[in-house]
Amino acid sequence: RTDTPDGMNAVRKRPSTASKPNRPPRPQRCIIHPESTAKVSWDCLALIAILFDIYLGPLYVYNLDDQSAHVFEVLHWFASGYWLLDIPVSFCTAVYVNDLLHFQPSVIAKTYLSSWFCFDLLMLLPDTIHILQLDRLWSPGSAGSSTGVLRIMRVQRLLRV
Question: Rounded to an integer, what distance in angstroms lies between the CA atom of residue 18 and that of residue 94?
């Protein structure tokens, strides 16, 4: 009870939880906070993967000796593996929407699907085609050109920077 200006006692209403904007929502078990050490470390790996792509992308145009080509191919697959794993990590990372941090998987999925998801899938398309070896389905006369097309499509990762 509190005293009102006229000296009468009044019952103070308990403030609702909606009026406490500073109270963070309870995070889900498998949801990563975007500012956590794990997520920041994961983003630092993204920088390394981007640097690999920047450095290795132009080299796909040239025919390198077998040893160099093998090293570059291994580095490329490490970077591709990172980007492939980044999609599920993005679905498990809390997001800010209108300056509010959301931990609900449905909000995270909706936000990711409407922003970077399509681009991430398109970025992985050349590697997926290469893994599935769909370029063998193209005519034998264009086998060399299909490899060139795949190499050129890998350069699209640079656009994410």
Answer: 20
Residue 84 near residue 124 (C-beta atoms within 8 A): yes
CB contact at 8 A, 99 and 34: no
What region, left, alpha or beta, does residue 32 occupy, with left being phi > 0 and alpha being psi -120 to 50 degrees? beta
Q: Is the pTM of this model over 0.70?
A: no
User: pLDDT class for 132, splitting at 50, 70, 90?
Assistant: confident
- What span, in angstroms and rounded, lies between the C-alpha atoms of 123 and 125? 6
CB under 8 Å to 155, separation ≥6 — which residues?
Answer: 57, 58, 60
Residue type at 130? H
Distance CA 15, CA 3 (A): 18
Residue 63: phi, psi to the nearest 5? -90, 110
**Do the beta carbons of residue 96 and residue 24 sit within 8 Å?**
no
Assign 6 to helix, strand or coil.
Answer: coil
